[in-house]
Amino acid sequence: MNSSFQYYVETEGFHFKYAKGAPSAVGREFHGYAEFILFINGEARFVSKNIQQRLSRGNLIMVPKGEFHQFSVEKPEEYTRCIFGFRETESLSKLVRAVMPEVMLVEAPNPRIVGIFEEMIATVRSSIEESEKKMFLEAALVQLLILCKQYSDDGISHNLNITPEVRAAMDYIDAHYTERLSVERIAREIHVSSSTLAHKFTRALNISVYRYLLKKRLAAAQERIRAGESLAGAATASGFCDYSCFYRVYKKYCKEL
Predict the structure, then answer these.
(1) 102-110: average pLDDT
(2) Do 70 and 37 contact (CB within 8 A), yes or no?
(3) The CATH number of the domain where 226 resides is what?
(4) Residue 159: inside a domain, yes or no?
(5) How many angstroms from the chain centroid is the CA of residue 223?
(6) Residue 5: which residues within 8 A CB-CB, separation 6 or more?
(7) Which of 200, 205, 100, 105 is nearest to 159 (CA)?
(8) Would you call 147 helix, strand, or coil by DSSP?
(9) Each residue of 52-98: pLDDT tens digit?
């Protein structure tokens, strides 16, 4: 019997999902919203710029907007998680940046934080009106951020298993993605051979240097388009030199982002 399930609530400013089963967000290594992920069950490995770690039940992952992250799920049928993605508002911006200055993993979050997730899950699964669920989640987001700031020193993982070369390459791309970049230029800037960089990057992140750069640019372009910029303007500002090339890949990948 298939025991997969999904409970989902979405507004313009946030989305909340409690689900078991295969992940639906494959390919979304970058996105324009911040995210809390509570890992509940299964076998999965998490990779970001500063963390490479197998997940354990109850781990809390905090991802700022625009930051690379990836889940490798070994048994999709057992993969259970709670995801709360949200866009920063002006009133929350300072608090969000204090809570998640970079991708962070809390191995054993404070019970009060876990309690907020349990209340959100119960509310989303309940039979109350959709509008009331949305109001509850909006209020819960503020509580969650404040509690995470209050307990910010509890159990933060500093598992830096990414090699220095890969971390340096990611830093360089993130700082220069709007410029003309190639594997050769990136390798030269971080003082390794292009073949060494390509091999270590793909092995560590399960994504090539080129695809990382492409997804970074696409995510940046999508945020500009969402803010009202034209397709052509967003493409140029995000590092694409050829609009026709941008349009083709944007149509292909925009659903992933």
Answers:
(1) 92
(2) no
(3) 1.10.10.60
(4) no
(5) 14
(6) 19, 20, 21
(7) 105
(8) helix
(9) 889 999 999 999 998 999 999 988 899 999 999 999 999 999 999 99
Sign of the CA dihedral 145, 151, 154, 158?
positive
SS3 52: strand
- Which domain does 59 fall in, by range? 5-150
Please determine, for residue 1, whether its predicted confidence score (pLDDT) is greater than 50: no
pLDDT digits (tens, 9 = 90+) for 118-158: 999 999 999 999 999 999 999 999 999 999 999 877 666 65
Find, among 35, 32, 44, 1, the residue nearest to 17 by Cα. Answer: 35
In a domain, 157, yes or no: no
Last residue of a domain, one of 150, 172, 200: 150
Q: How many domains does the chain have?
A: 2
3 versus 18: the higher-pLDDT residue is 18
Structure tokens at 22: 């295969």
CA distance 209 to 172: 11
Are residue 21 and residue 109 in the same domain, yes or no?
yes
